[in-house]
Design goal:
Elements (H helix, E strand, L loop, with lengths): L1 H47 L2 H18 L7 E5 L5 E5 L7 H44 L2 E5 L5 H24 L8 H6 L7 E2 L2 E2 L9 E4 L6 H15 L2 E6 L3 H6 L6 E3 L11 H4 L3 H11 L10 H20 L4 H10 L2 H8 L13 H15 L14 H5 L8 E5 L5 H19 L5 E10 L9 H9 L3 E9 L2 H8 L1 H10 L2 E4 L5 H11 L1 E12 L8 E12 L3 H5 L5 E5 L7 E4 L61 E3 L4 E3 L12 H9 L6 E6 L6 E7 L20 H8 L4 H7 L7 H8 L18
């Protein structure tokens, strides 16, 4: 009830306040209206009536008032005629005097005409005043942009870009041709090879800003491929070259021309014969290739294993180049599959010598394993066909409008990603070795940047490729994926270097917030309206208070709720952002997206039956050093798996020799119940010899021998057995006599409910807990 009373009080006070304020607002216009109406009527009356007629009008008014008051109607009134004579007429008939009636009719006509003139003047004036007051009141409260980013309509953005391009075109062509260029049409200038801005999402790029690079941000299915397809079609029409990373095969199906285009896909039949030696001729180039082929995780400093694997690859490539065996097969055979001793012989005297030394066999194998895990795709490259070099293609050994497709299916990305990274990195590095130019020389279109490994040349390309005619357009699904590949700091660097942004719908808030920051912030001034009212109307008031604040131009939720094929575009150099809509176009399929190079090795339902893998024998050691899979003493390590005999609760090997029979639990429990707790032994299975050998006899009682702090494993027939024979019985015999089987450390853990952790030492070096 109290709440309702407060609402009623507030509402009634505000209604009264607004009523008085509205009346106060109308007071001025009403006064002006009255003054104007009176003035026009007076002017019309004075213009239309003579003085005698005005006199008669006044006498008519006088007679009307006399009759209204119901005075004596027979009383005479003196009227002055037009000639000056006076005549007396009673009040009852004076208003019917013909000259007076004519004067009254003329007066009414003049008044009507004056009011009509007033209406013609006042109604537009009043409408204008109303519009002005309403607009002024609205503008006084609306947000005012003071500085920062701006959001405009698409038409406004296109008009601004058109004015900008027209001014720069006139300046550039004027320096080249003077005033004569104005005689040529735009199509003639384009046919002559003069620069024409490209288009992104149907919007023209500002003059020569394609080389400021672009980033397309949006989740799957929002329209990134649609925008890139239009860009490729325009580049093909203008004869511009492009390097396209095509993960789905959509670009190959729509644009592949066998006469001038190249497909680099290690498992595609159309892939030419490519080798790392075709693109690398110096040690620096091999180092650049190694950096792309063996990437690190993108977070922090590069690991030792990655750097060592790169060094091993570079030194092996240099050796093969010097010996004239620079082929993919030789690289795979001598580095990836050869025995470590053979690799060390090839690397002797190089910087990779200590990395492959047999003394550090395990480290060497780890380094090679890191390289093999990243470079395994080298074994899948074709060994025949036309030779191809990415460097030669970038330098111009191709037709106009040629496209280099770097392609891979999703199922092949696990083995192809490193090679695709190497090819793209090589193309970018080669471009930056050419002569500087301000003309657009080549496009780099990467639909899904996160699908590739870290591109070492990408940061350098975004920084300097514009000076060599390179324009890079990347597509990003989510900021988290970019951070995963490049690290947080580098991800921010890459996104800032791509200055043109096309932002489509995003699926996560982090990416949406990231995009909101790209569009920008602005400082605005808001007018806050406040009301005050009281019992006395003098206290009623409305106050407007200005307040400045900085806010994002677009909220993250606006990007998360964008429909597909809708986006916001933002160009550099101070151009405002604007909403755009993408229009997909159906293109004919002119080629297959993927053609397998070889048949599968195993067909479904065929192949050998599954068997238990057998242990591989150790490699043969040389005269100086043990093999890489030795235990360090020249003997192959027999990696027998340990099993637990759950019935007897003993730790045994896969194939033990002379194994003792397990003692039933009932027998051991009976011996423990009899109080015979002595002569309990601990034994461990020797992995090389097979049988379970005692380490020491841990006894309790008066004749318990002293033990050292540590017992070592003894070979069969050594002092360990002799010690047991001195007192006339073997440890196993004494344990059997006591009705109990010796407990191993694993048995103790099982009895106590613990799970034994695997030993950190090598097999055969197990030490008992004391």
């Amino acid at each position: 009830m109290k709440h309702n009373l407060l609402n009623f009080t507030r509402g009634s006070q505000l209604l009264g306040h607004f009523g008085f304020m509205f009346a106060a607002g109308l007071k001025g216009p009403l006064i002006v209206t009255g003054l104007v109406a009176v003035g026009t009527c007076y002017w019309e009356v004075r213009s239309a009536l003579s003085d005698h007629q005005i006199y008669l009008v006044w006498m008519h008014i006088y007679a009307s008032l006399y009759a209204f008051m119901e005075f004596d109607p027979a009383k005479l009134v003196n009227l002055e005629l037009l000639d000056g004579e006076r005549v007396g007429l009673p009040f009852s008939i004076v208003r019917e005097f013909p000259p007076m009636r004519e004067a009254v009719e003329a007066f009414l006509t003049a008044v009507k005409h004056g009011l009509l003139v007033s209406a013609v003047l006042l109604i537009p004036a009043f409408v204008f005043f109303w519009w002005f007051a309403e607009r002024f009141g609205g503008r006084s409260k609306e947000r005012k942009h003071e500085r920062g980013a701006m959001l405009v309509s698409l038409d406004e953005l296109e008009e601004e870009i058109e004015r900008h391009n027209k001014a720069f075109r006139a300046e550039e062509l004027g320096h080249k041709f003077g005033w004569k260029w104005r005689l040529a049409s735009s199509s003639a200038l384009a046919e002559a090879g003069h620069y024409q801005p490209a288009h992104l999402a149907g919007v023209s790029w500002p003059w020569r800003l394609e080389q400021s690079h672009a980033m397309l941000i949006g989740t799957t299915g929002t329209g990134k491929t649609v925008a890139l397809t239009e860009l490729v079609a325009e580049a093909r029409e203008r004869g511009q070259r492009a390097v396209i990373f095509d993960l789905t095969g959509a670009f190959i199906e729509a644009f592949y021309d066998p006469a001038r285009d190249i497909i680099l896909n290690p498992v595609d039949v159309r892939c030419p014969l490519w080798s790392v030696f075709n693109d690398c001729t110096t040690e620096a180039e091999f180092h650049a290739a190694a950096e792309a082929l063996v990437p690190h995780d993108g977070g922090g400093s590069e690991q030792f294993w990655v750097l060592a694997a790169r060094m091993l690859f570079v030194e092996m490539c240099l050796h093969l180049a010097r010996t004239g065996t620079a082929t993919n097969e030789a690289l795979a055979r001598q580095l990836m599959t050869a025995d470590l001793s053979e690799v060390h012989k090839l690397m002797r005297g190089t910087m990779a010598d200590p990395l492959t030394a047999p003394e550090a066999a395990r480290m060497a194998e780890s380094i090679r394993a890191v390289f093999n895990a990243n470079a395994k795709v080298l074994k899948l490259l074709p060994s025949s066909g036309p030779r191809f070099s990415v460097r030669d293609w970038v330098k111009g050994d191709c037709q106009a409008g040629s496209i280099l497709f770097l392609s891979a299916r999703y199922v092949d990305m696990s083995i192809s990603s490193q090679l695709l990274t190497l090819w793209l990195d090589t193309a970018m590095n080669t471009l930056m070795t050419l002569e500087r130019t301000q003309d657009l020389r080549m496009w780099f279109l990467i639909d899904e940047l996160g699908a590739l490994h870290r591109l070492p040349a990408l940061e350098k390309g975004l920084q300097t490729a514009r000076n060599f005619g390179g324009a890079i357009v990347t597509g990003v699904h989510a900021f988290a994926k970019l951070k995963e590949v490049y690290g947080e700091n580098m991800a921010m660097t890459l996104s800032s270097l791509a200055r043109t942004k096309l932002i489509l719908a995003t699926a996560d808030r982090e990416t949406a917030t990231w995009c909101s920051d790209f569009i920008g912030h602005r400082q605005v001034r808001d007018m806050e309206e406040g009301y005050s009212y009281g019992y006395n109307n003098a206290r009623d008031a409305v106050s407007l208070t200005p307040r400045r604040q900085i806010e994002p131009l677009l909220l993250p939720d606006q990007f998360m709720n964008l429909p597909r094929l809708s986006a916001y575009i933002k160009f550099p150099d101070g151009f405002p952002a604007a909403p755009v809509s993408l229009i997909p176009r159906t293109r004919g399929r002119i080629a297959e997206g993927f053609i397998a190079r070889e048949k599968p090795l195993i067909r479904p339902g065929q192949g050998p039956a599954a068997t238990t893998p057998q242990a591989k024998p150790g490699s043969k050691p040389n005269d100086e050093h043990p093999a890489s899979n030795d235990d360090g003493a020249g003997k192959p390590v027999d990696l027998r798996q340990l099993k637990l005999d759950l019935e007897g609760q003993r730790r045994i090997a896969d194939e033990p020799q002379d194994r003792q029979e397990p003692v039933p639990l009932e027998r051991r429990n009976a011996g423990r119940a009899a109080g015979d707790l002595g002569a309990e032994t601990r034994s461990v299975t020797h992995l090389d010899a097979g049988p379970t050998l005692p380490l020491a006899a841990v006894q309790t009682g008066e004749d318990a021998p002293a033990m050292g702090a540590e017992q070592h494993l003894s070979e069969p027939g050594t002092a360990s057995d002799d010690a047991g024979e001195k007192d006339g019985s073997k440890p196993q015999a004494r344990s059997a006599a006591n009705g109990r089987q010796p407990l191993t450390p694993v048995e103790k853990d099982l009895r106590e409910g613990a799970v034994a952790d695997p030993p950190e030492k090598d097999f055969g070096e197990f030490e008992p807990d004391m």
